[in-house]
Amino acid sequence: MIEWLPILIFPLCGLVAVVVITLVQRGRELDDQGLLISFAVVFSLALLACFGLLRTQWVQEKLDPALKQATDLHAHPAFIALETYYPNDVQSPRDAILADLAAGASVTQALQKARPKLAKLGRDRLGFASEQARIAWGQAELQALRELKVRDVNDCAALAGSQGDYSGFSVLGSGLSAENHQLFEAAFVQVLTTADAGMRRELPPPSQNLELGQVQARYVELRAPLAQRYGEEVINYLERRRFEIVAPYTNAQVLCDFRTAQLETILKEPPAMAARLLDSAMR
Q: Over the Cα atoms of the chain, what is R_g?
């Protein structure tokens, strides 16, 4: 349809010129020269108005839904953050998102499909992010664990084990609620934005200055009831896999339940402590 518009405009403008001249003339006769001049003037004005209107973004988006999708994508905060902080990174899912959009996917669908890669990029920078950004990231992951547990406990366990194996992020690519995707996208923007400031040492000071010993002591205090409830084996599994290759944990239900409870426990701590514990638990 769009490629035919330039051709259709000419007869349309001609018709408009005839109608306008007829209405203005109102039965009066014009000589051929006057009629030709009037037609040329009205036709030219109508043609200029049509081409001017076609060049407006609103009309172009109405005529070409793909253009509107691309405009919406480039205005989306998550994509802006991706373009800003990973403009040419080979790990960036930018090209895949644009390809999905060109294939007919909506902006929401394209970003949801790219979420596993976005999660990896955000997790890699979590250690440099602000405490608020880390907490937002932890809240989004906790809700994702809860939703995955209802859907399939094995998917929940895969995400629970993503600390040492980013392939676990693959379960985030579909099936999660719109609310969770919104939480994740907001956290993703916060992490990338504040991590960039953190790497340049421009972050504001934390709400509370904590020594490493204080964080370690609190971790041990929180670890004890979790170990009593879920067992030392699952905790040792997650702690060891950060530094070495270990055999997969076989009890998906326990791994899922433990990880959910661990994040719930950490997120109840004061912001400064929660942020430090989340950094340790999630990376």
A: 29
Amino acid residing at 150 = V
Q: Which of 190, 202, 77 is nearest to 137 (CA)?
A: 190
Q: Identify the three-state secondary structure at position 31.
A: coil
DSSP for 73-112, written as a single string: HHTSHHHHHHHHH-SS-TT--HHHHHHHHHTT--HHHHHH
Please give the DSSP secondary-structure letter assigned to residue 270.
-
| 17 vs 30: CA distance, rounded Å | 15
Please give the structure tokens belonging to residue 108: 């929401």
Query: Distance between CA 9 and CA 257 in Å, rounded?
Result: 64
The first and second tokens of residue 17, run together, are 């010129």
Q: Which residues contact 81 (CB under 8 A, 6 or more apart)?
A: 188, 189, 192, 193
pLDDT digit string (tens) for 19-65? 666 666 665 665 556 666 666 666 677 667 766 666 666 555 555 55
Q: Rounded distance, CA 62 to CA 202, Å? A: 43
Interior/surface letters 256-275, b for 16+ CB within 10 angstroms, e for the rest: bbbbbbbbebbeebebbbbb
Look at residues 273, 251, 258 and name the one whose alpha carbon lies nearest to residue 226.
258
Joined tokens for residue 49: 């108005």
Report the interhelical angle of 131-151 vs 178-199 (nearest 10°).
Answer: 150
| pLDDT less than 70: residues of the chain | 1-43, 46-47, 50-70, 90
Residue showing tokens 């002591």: 217
Our CA angle for 33, 35, 40, nearest 5°, is 95
Residue 87: phi, psi to the nearest 5?
-65, -35
For 110-131, the DSSP string reads HHHHTHHHHHHHHHHTGGGS-H
